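Researcher: Re-running this chain for the archive, since the previous output was lost when a drive failed. Same request as before.
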Amino acid sequence: MAVAIGCSLMFFDSASAQPSGSVETLAQALAAAYADNPTLNAQRANLRATDEGVPQALSGFRPQISADASTGITNASGGGSSATFFPSGVSLTITQPLFTGGRTVNGVKIAETAVLAGREVLRNTEQTTLLSAVSAFMNLVQAQALLNLQKQNLDFLGQQGKAATDRLNVGEGTRTDVAQTNASLAAGQASYDSAVAALNTAIAVYAQVIGHEPKALGAAKPVDNLLSKNLNAALADAMTYHPAILAASYNIDISDFNVKVAEGALLPTVALQGQLSHQEGGLSGSNGNSASAVASLSVPIFSGGDSSAKLRQAKEVLDQARIQLDAARDTVREETISAWGTLDAARAQIRAADSETTAQNLVLSGIIEEQKVGQATTLDVLNAQQTLLSARVAFVTAQHDRVVASYTLLAAIGKLNAETLGLDVASYDPVQHYVQVRDKWGGLRTPDGR
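Model: Regenerated structure tokens:
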């Protein structure tokens, strides 16, 4: 049995669906998905992990401090005598890198650019999640509306079957009329059962994407006011704002910095090391303290070809990133053109389906009147009813496609987000966590206390 859901969509024929309880609009469903969708929240957590790469890279500028302690036992013998010593010592070592061939500087740039790329990946995930939520909402509304139509069709066919049987009983009908209505009723029942299954599937998808079970669904409308004015403007917006293109652009910068890091491995490094130590209980039986400061220079001469191979590899990866940017632009361009065409087609389909539904309503009414005076057969009525049902299904489908296509186009130009839609939900600010952790020198807890 299907879960009863009231769908009062502004342009769907859903009179038989009675809303129960509070009505959830598309905007409310999108807000719930924005806050609770696990895929989107997982990507936010992934970006927070990426943020931690910046303090890791910055640690290369900072001193490294370590402490060591040792103790043991030594037995020394000679000249007919022996002695046991208990040597022990502690030391504190501070190492400050002075020059690393530019690897630390470029490592920080890599980490910072990775954060920027990660933010664009998060924006893209947000777009995908919101578009999935739109589809889930509209698919459920469509499934309920189609179920309503199938129920109305069953009621109509049941009435026709009863009328055919009554006419047969009074000698005005034929067994053929009864058989035809029974066959149509059986086919209608099968279509109704299929619509019930489709509705239950839509309910399951809705709960998965939105994060809660649906109740009554309310208004939904296209977002034409947020779209570009023409196709050329849409393409320009897509090239400027789409997160997939921006992320690919940042990936080029990351690859370029990686080349510089690989080049830095061929350069000398300079470090300053200071050490304080205390030793006691040695063979001489004396205690001692020492302090030292040493500047060291390390010059790579030959690494067996490893550094050279890594540099060549980094250059190939840079070339790959440039090609991937071109591919991202091509993909976004194709998606934008396709979405624009789909939206135009949906608008035309609505007009056509609306006209066809109006005309088929008149046709069915006329044939029913003709049947009453013997100028039309039961089969004529059944055929007209099926034609009208098909027109109504086409109208519902076109309205569904109209809304989904407008949101798809908004995503294609890179503007499908909570701020643009004006959703009543607290916006996730990826900068906040970055600022909290960027300059941390220590601490084991995350900013939220974990």
